[in-house]
Amino acid sequence: MRAATETTDPALPSPDVLAERLLPWFDAHNRTELPWRRPGTTAWGVLVSEIMSQQTQVARVAPVWEAWMARWPEPADLAAAPTADVLREWGRMGYPRRALRLQECARIIAEEHGGTVPADPAELEKLPGIGNYTAAAVAVFHYGGRHAVVDTNVRRVVARLGGRSDAGTATTRADLAAAAALLPEDTATAARVSLALMELGALVCTARKTECGTCPVTAECGFSGQELPEGPSRKRQRYKGTNRHVRGEVMALLRDADGPVERARIDAVWTDRRMVDEAVAQLIADGLIGTDEQGRFELPSR
């Protein structure tokens, strides 16, 4: 029986028809080269990959993930690591607060869950920095649960199946219900459909174009064959010259330093002193850098 929150949209294909069309395509096109999709990847490995991939392209994530898992294969390993080493290993993936949250997740998993990543999305969402998507992803992609895993790609695919050109900018309850309604009753099949929907949005039904001619569900798609409407161009956020850029330069200096760094070297990373002051204050507030007894700057030891 379907959960009460799952509603059937008459514009969407039935779960069984969707699975029949989609899963053979997925078996042929699944990006098995991604290291976290290798057989034997642990729930911890999946969790690490999802947090790293939140705001970073998977091509950049893959080598960092490999090095990370070789160094800290279990939550307890990361929990015990010096935070400075964690931030150095994170490197230039951006948004390094994710590394701090991941280490805090590791400590909680090690101390409160016996080193085992929870399988229940509700328990996963209690961990620092873990939202609905990441919790569902771990529960489905590792544990094989039957849950709607809804990211930008899945929202777009579901919207187009229903005849719309795109979804909104944030995941809503309606998005979750629509995705859940597409899952077959069989739990193992539902888990594969969840990943296949995401893969379809990443490889075929993308934001900038629709490859309807190669889409395995084009016959069941309400938007099939239609042109994407003209709209504002989706330009990538500017990085050069921004506060994020300055913060990144300060972090890079401290990651590469052999020891604590004098303020003069911090000031030299950027010509605008006001921007440096702002970046340093933010990094201290975020717990990403600290100072020693002599006022020199360094990465946090814990």
Automatic annotation (TrEMBL):
SMART domains: ENDO3c (SM00478)
EC code: 3.2.2.31
Catalytic activity: Hydrolyzes free adenine bases from 7,8-dihydro-8-oxoguanine:adenine mismatched double-stranded DNA, leaving an apurinic site
Keyword annotations from UniProtKB, A to Z: 4Fe-4S, DNA damage, DNA repair, Glycosidase, Hydrolase, Iron, Iron-sulfur, Metal-binding
Cofactors that this protein relies on: [4Fe-4S] cluster
GO molecular function, one term: metal ion binding
Domain (HhH-GPD): residue spans on this chain: 52-203
Pfam families: HHH (PF00633), HhH-GPD (PF00730)
A biological process from GO: mismatch repair
Database matches in InterPro entries: DNA_glycosylase, HhH-GPD_domain, HhH_base_excis_C, HhH_motif, MIG/MutY
Family: Belongs to the Nth/MutY family.
Protein name in UniProt: Adenine DNA glycosylase
Origin species: Glycomyces sambucus
